[in-house]
């Protein structure tokens, strides 16, 4: 009888210890999960900030295909968003004439050609505007290109 009682006491003691150990392990794992969730949130926020910083760092550059353009003849300008080679969200591209934005195209590349036709020798400034969606707002880039126009 003593052996049975002693064995029962040993089993109860060991099972209580095991339960305490499991509770401690569970507490440690819960703390690790909480820490990892916080780190994950910080990483997501950091990635979003880097993407936003990238969009705000873009520069609009225009390079005429020809040294001079002729009045009334179509010409082309290579429009680049620097830094090059990144895929962008689909954005809208506008030209500005008489302080009005006129939609020209949509794109998601850092390069496209813009066709224009100068109306006179004074029509040598091309104003461009790009509207890039970013979450619940838009990032807007302006650019102006001066070209040589002759008759």
In short:
The strands form three sheets. The chain has a four-stranded antiparallel sheet with strand order 5-4-7-8, covered by helices on one side. It is α+β, with helices and mostly antiparallel strands and 151 residues long. It contains one helix and nine strands, in the order H-E-E-E-E-E-E-E-E-E.
Write the layout of secondary structure elements.
Elements: H1 2-56, E1 59-64, E2 68-70, E3 75-82, E4 91-97, E5 100-107, E6 111-116, E7 125-134, E8 137-146, E9 148-150
Parallel strand pairs: 2-9
Antiparallel strand pairs: 1-3, 3-6, 4-5, 4-7, 7-8
Structure, explained:
By secondary structure, this protein is α+β, with helices and mostly antiparallel strands. The mean pLDDT is 85. The chain has a four-stranded antiparallel sheet, covered by helices on one side. It has a three-stranded antiparallel sheet with strand order 1-3-6, with no helix packed on it. The chain has a two-stranded parallel ribbon with strand order 2-9. It contains one helix and nine strands; from the N terminus they run αβββββββββ. The N and C termini lie far apart (119 Å). Helix content is 36%, strand content 40%.
């Amino acid at each position: 009888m003593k052996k049975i009682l002693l064995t029962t006491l040993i089993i109860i003691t060991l099972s209580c210890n095991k339960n305490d150990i499991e509770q401690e392990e569970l507490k440690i794992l819960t703390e690790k999960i909480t820490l990892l969730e916080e780190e994950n949130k910080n990483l997501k926020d950091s990635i979003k900030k880097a993407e936003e910083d990238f969009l705000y760092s873009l520069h609009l550059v225009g390079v005429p295909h020809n040294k001079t353009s002729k009045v009334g003849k179509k010409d082309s300008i290579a429009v680049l968003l620097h830094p090059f080679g990144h895929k962008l969200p689909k954005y809208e591209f506008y030209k500005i004439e008489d302080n009005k934005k006129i939609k020209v195209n949509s794109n998601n590349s850092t390069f496209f050609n813009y066709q224009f036709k100068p109306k006179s020798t004074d029509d040598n400034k091309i104003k461009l505007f790009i509207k890039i969606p970013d979450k619940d707002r838009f990032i807007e880039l302006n650019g102006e290109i001066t070209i040589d126009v002759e008759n």
